[in-house]
Amino acid sequence: MSAEKIALYGGTFNPPHLGHVRLLQAAESEIAFDRVFVVPDKRPVHKICEDLALDAERLEMCRLAFSGPRCTVSDMEIARPSDSYTVYTVRTLTEKYPQAELYLLMGSDMFLCFHKWYRWREIFERCTLCVASRQTADDLKALRGYAFSQLRVYVKDRAGEHLRFLAAEPLEISSTALRAALAAGADMSRYLPAGVERYIREKGLYGYKAQR
């Protein structure tokens, strides 16, 4: 019997947008996950974010954005009393599912600073990193170069030891710009899952006020 495959998808998700959804879809198209854990950060260690939605709001938006019988939106990082580091979540999952193969999903921006993460080597030993990529020659060259220079991993085509590059088209707007546009009352429905966009409007998150 093959090992259970588990995906860990962490992030601020402030808010969860279609770029996040596409990354998970790209991973699921290549890897038959048995379980998917979507885990919002309690407080972003790598980012300064003054307009962070409440924990309960980000959890609910993630439930609206990500669905499926194998997908669980978890508060394991939000509920943690200490600072939120990915390595702690990785340890929790590997202790609970010791025979499983663990895959950590991330965008290329987070991958390119992965060597600065707390205890990144331990994460890399325990997980396979699944990194979103535009799949252009320049993009793959940059990702491969970083993997070799910082992580000492040689990547042939789109895969190396503990590392895979996914064909996932990123959202052509940053989360910061998305929140600013929402605060200005702009229609951002083309960037957001329908349920998330509706929730933001109804709750008035990020200072959203519909234009009259």
UniProtKB/TrEMBL annotation:
Biological process terms in GO annotation: NAD+ biosynthetic process
Where does the Cytidyltransferase-like domain lie? 8-180
- Catalysed reaction per UniProt? nicotinate beta-D-ribonucleotide + ATP + H(+) = deamido-NAD(+) + diphosphate
**Molecular function as annotated in GO:** ATP binding; nicotinate-nucleotide adenylyltransferase activity
Pfam families named among the record's database cross-references: CTP_transf_like (PF01467)
Q: Which keywords appear in this protein's UniProt record, sorted alphabetically? A: ATP-binding, NAD, Nucleotide-binding, Nucleotidyltransferase, Pyridine nucleotide biosynthesis, Transferase
Known InterPro entries for this protein?
A: Cyt_trans-like, NadD/NMNAT, Rossmann-like_a/b/a_fold
Keyword Nucleotide-binding among record annotations: yes
Could you say which EC number(s) this protein's record lists? 2.7.7.18
Q: Which pathway, metabolic or otherwise, does it act in? A: Cofactor biosynthesis; NAD(+) biosynthesis; deamido-NAD(+) from nicotinate D-ribonucleotide: step 1/1
Principal EC category = transferase
Hey, which family's this protein in?
A: Belongs to the NadD family.
The task this protein performs is described as:
Catalyzes the reversible adenylation of nicotinate mononucleotide (NaMN) to nicotinic acid adenine dinucleotide (NaAD).
Q: What is this protein called?
A: Probable nicotinate-nucleotide adenylyltransferase
Organism equals: Candidatus Fimenecus excrementigallinarum
Q: Give the organism's phylogenetic lineage.
A: Bacteria, Bacillati, Bacillota, Clostridia, Candidatus Fimenecus
What's the gene? nadD
